[in-house]
Amino acid sequence: MTKVRIATVWLSGCSGCHMSLLDIDETLLDLADRFELVKSPLVDAKEFPAGIDVTLVEGAVANEEHVEILKDVRAKSRLVVAFGDCAVTGNVPAMRNPIPPHDLLERVYGKGMTTTGTLPTEVVPPLVDRVRPVHEVIPVDLWLHGCPPPAGVIARVLTALLNGEMPQLTGKDLKFG
Amino acid sequence: MEQVVIQIDGNEVRTARGNTVLEAARDNGIRIPTLCHLDGLPDIGACRLCMVEIDGRFGTACTTRVRDGMKVRINTDELHEMRRTVLELLFAERNHVCSFCVSNGHCELQDLACELGMDSVRVPYRYPTLSLDATHPRFIIDHNRCVMCARCVRVCAEVEGAHTWGIAFRGTQVRVITDLGVDWGNAETCTSCGKCVQVCPTGAIVLKGQATAEMEKHPELVAELEERRRAG
Fold first, then answer.
1. Tell me, what's the pLDDT at A42?
2. Could you give all domains of chain A from N- to C-terminal order, each with its CATH number?
3. Mean pLDDT, to the nearest integer, of A57-68?
4. Rounded CA separation A175/A157 (Å)
């Protein structure tokens, strides 16, 4: 049996959703031989590989690199799952939205804040004007709510996807926060 | 009491003359989602979530009185879609960050997202810049989480009789204010009764000193209070 190819990416979020994924405990062991984790913050691979069945996206879209990552993810994944409230709504990262990005950088890196007071121009990707949920940037197939999503819901969603079914999320599955 | 016969989704149901469509539905065990409606307060049809089809036209169930032979549709795909869109607009309009809200887990807006199957908000979030007023010694109003249901305005005017809360400005600028726009802590008419806290459906008006998910409210107290007053 060919294994289901799963990837996870981590955009602007706290990694709590990835922690919740690990928190499904022995279910992960039960499912482990049915999928291959081909790209993830937990797996060392430089490029996002092609031919992915399911990609879980944790975090909101906060900078230009995130936009590029998502375009790549969408092109190479059959299903994209917005994984957790930051990916679904923008959540905490989006709280910076009322503040212009330059003012924000000035406040964090500017005069009096760091020894040089110079704003980063290299290595650090430029911030986008407004932090956005994933589906405002690329089409999303499934939204997994929660901050973080409860381990039980993640286990149910993963199991359904590995069985080739689209998980049905209703009622309390859709609770934010 | 005189009865009126109306049709709901093709079935004949009876209800007392003078009832609203919402009351008629409830009397017959049919659920219509609501947000601004609260038993014990006058209805104003502010949130539009109880939208139904009445004799071929759309209207709010909470503010429409029944008439003999009225044909009401509640559960159609079109109405489900309409209610969900209304809910999405409410979420997109202000900054509802459930994950660290004091009302997380005890929020009527959050519950509606579950009930109406809102898997995502399909309109762009607005992320407006809004303030928070913590000048009152016991309470906080966070405009980021307000849905403009005006329950606070109604309970303050109609039940407490203080008229501290009001609504100012229009469109995207609309917000609730205390005493013509002074800080809540300086609002002389406020009796600090806390009824606005109890009726607020979200984490907009809350008690101070609550941590995330700790704020549990009791909006049903208003109906109980009204009942006791009627009984004398």
1. 82
2. 4-97+127-174 (3.40.50.700)
3. 98
4. 15
Complex ipTM value: 0.93
pLDDT tier for residue A1 given thresholds of 50, 70 and 90: low
Q: Is B115 on the interface with A (CB under 8 A)?
A: yes
Q: Is residue A147 a contact partner of residue A91, using CB atoms and an 8 Å limit?
A: yes
A89 phi, psi to nearest 5 deg: -125, -15
Chain B residues inside the 8 Å CB shell of A130: 127
Low-confidence ranges of chain B (pLDDT < 50): none
| Domain final residue, candidates B52, B75, B98 | B75
| Residue type at position B62 | C
B44: CATH: 3.10.20.740
Cα(B211)–Cα(B100) distance, rounded to whole angstroms?
A: 8
**Token pair in block for residue B171:** 């469109």
Look at residue B230 and tell me if it is in a domain: no
Say yes or no: B105 contacts chain A, CB-CB below 8 A.
yes
pTM of the model: 0.95
Query: Prior bond to A148 cis, omega within 30?
Result: yes
* B118 vs A85, A130, A174: nearest CB: A174
